């Protein structure tokens, strides 16, 4: 379960401040994601030191993928991101830091108005860079999908009153509509070394995939501060509109750089939840998260949550996700098993990030397919075996059988009716 003590007065207040530094990084700069970790990270330095850090805190650590994920997201209805500085300078408790007035005052104002805020609200800090699209003081709000520019410590009380208490608009700000997808990765190394080691490697791989597949302007990725559940590092949150045009926020845990192409191809491009990495989502309680996953499993016939990927839109494709070294092949759909390493299918024509029917060129489609199978350049990444189950074939076979049975049944009915007709004459 995500750390419930990471919240201020979780039982009495609709305002949630994740562990005093539950602040997410800048997702506002769609397509121009934060560059803090583009060429650097907490694993920089000698190869030996990096390997040692990975073994203790990274993807090779002993506790990696040892705890169930589903139902580890505390209930909340709204996520507020304050863009402010960067992970390298964030203290462990940034909203309580003496010299960081803006996050400290915003967190205090939310706590003071906790009884007046109608929606369970989570506050997270995101990275801000003055002089770029996302600046210090910008505020992103989900599921509203809006951004307010340049909040200052002088405006905090008015902003909280008008926007978060009254659910109105902060008139000096004039909210801007956000489009596309926003991916946040916890990189708060001063709070927990696991997030500091795993997060930057995931951000780097996301930036690489976005650039190589021409997704700038469609997908934004940003490092963020503590969001709860250090032991699940790498922690990832994805916000965007579903195939039903509803804004949802899905949390993933135990993510490695090798899992990044799968998250982009399945969750962002197709709207399919990657259940074996899924922690939960905005707007659902712990029990509802577990029930939601169980429902998807029952629809798709999946049982192996360590390796299976579930299609939230009921598409008949199952995949075996990342496998740890030394584990056996996956098995699903009865006795059909797979042991080969293969690529995930990419329906690039449906990569509808901004609900504008964005299409890839043939070259980009081929590039994206190649990216799916490419191993991560980050250290400590684990090999992944992915397999496709022939559920489409089984579905076709069942439909064909049903059609034959229907024809035979119709013929028998006609013959019986004709026989009765003859007897009546």
UniProtKB/TrEMBL annotation:
CDD domains: TRX_Fd_Sucrase. Gene3D superfamilies: Glutaredoxin. Pfam families: Suc_Fer-like (PF06999). InterPro entries: Aim32/Apd1-like, Thioredoxin-like_sf. This is Sucrase. The lineage of its organism: Eukaryota, Viridiplantae, Streptophyta, Embryophyta, Tracheophyta.
């Amino acid at each position: 379960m995500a750390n419930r003590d990471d919240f201020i007065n979780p039982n009495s207040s609709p305002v949630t401040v994740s562990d005093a530094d539950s602040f997410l990084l800048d997702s506002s700069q769609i397509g121009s994601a934060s560059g803090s970790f583009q060429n650097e990270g907490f694993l920089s330095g000698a190869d030996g030191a990096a390997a040692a850090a990975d073994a203790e805190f990274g993807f090779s650590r002993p506790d990696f993928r040892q705890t169930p994920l589903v139902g580890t997201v505390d209930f909340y209805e709204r996520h507020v991101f304050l863009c402010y500085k960067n992970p390298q300078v964030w203290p462990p408790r940034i909203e309580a830091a003496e010299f960081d007035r803006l996050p400290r005052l915003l967190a205090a104002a939310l706590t003071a108005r906790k009884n007046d805020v109608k929606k369970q609200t989570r506050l997270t800090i995101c990275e801000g860079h003055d002089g770029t699209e996302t600046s210090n003081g910008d505020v992103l709000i989900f599921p509203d999908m809006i951004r307010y520019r340049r909040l200052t410590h002088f405006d905090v009380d008015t902003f909280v009153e008008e926007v978060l208490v009254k659910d109105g608009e902060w008139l000096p700000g004039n909210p801007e509509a956000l489009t596309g997808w926003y991916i946040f990765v916890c990189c708060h190394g001063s709070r927990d070394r696991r997030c500091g080691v795993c997060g930057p490697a995931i951000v780097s791989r996301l930036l690489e995939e976005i650039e190589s597949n021409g997704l700038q302007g469609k997908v934004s990725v940003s490092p963020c501060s503590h969001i709860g559940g250090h032991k699940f590092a790498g922690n990832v949150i994805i916000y965007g509109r579903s195939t039903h045009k509803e804004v949802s926020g899905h949390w993933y845990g135990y993510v490695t750089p090798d899992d990044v192409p799968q998250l982009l191809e399945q969750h962002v491009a197709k709207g399919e939840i990657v259940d074996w990495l899924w922690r939960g989502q905005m707007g659902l309680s712990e029990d509802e998260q577990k029930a939601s996953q169980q429902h998807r499993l029952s629809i798709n016939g999946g049982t192996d949550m360590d390796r299976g990927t579930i299609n939230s839109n009921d598409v008949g494709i199952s995949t075996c996700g990342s496998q740890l070294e030394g584990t056996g092949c996956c098995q699903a759909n009865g006795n059909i098993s797979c042991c080969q390493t293969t690529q995930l299918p990419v329906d690039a024509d449906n990569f509808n990030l901004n609900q504008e029917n964005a299409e890839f060129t043939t070259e980009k489609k081929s590039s994206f397919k190649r990216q799916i199978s490419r191993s991560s350049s980050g250290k400590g990444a684990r090999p992944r075996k992915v397999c496709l189950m022939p559920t489409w074939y089984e579905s076709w076979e069942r439909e064909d059988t049903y059609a034959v049975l229907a024809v035979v049944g119709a013929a028998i009915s006609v013959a019986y009716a004709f026989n009765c007709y003859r007897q009546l004459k």
